[in-house]
Amino acid sequence: MTVDPRAALDRLIASLEAHYNAVVAKHDDDDPAVDDAYDVLADAFEVYDEALGTAHGEALPFYLAEEDDEDDEDDDEWGPDGDDAFEDGADVDEASAEHA
Fold this sequence. Notes:
Number of domains: 1
Helix content: 40-55%
Radius of gyration: 17 Å
Distance between the termini: 30 Å
Shape: elongated
Number of helices: 3
Structural class: mainly alpha
Strand content: under 5%
Order of helices and strands: HHH
């Protein structure tokens, strides 16, 4: 079944608003409403991206990162103070492209 890209976009926008509202209204850092809104938003994003690609042969300029239950593999890119640890003159965009 092919999803209409316009309907998928409307769902994505509504999901963004619902996620924002859940974040603003959260009671603590582990509020399940935020987690639920996150999941709905991620699903709406994927549906829109697929619908756009199927109907128009286009892709969005970004993607959802894969979630890991283990430590992030990219932690070694950041210094102990949160500063990026790239060597002098290294371009963050070039390094990001290498990880994609």
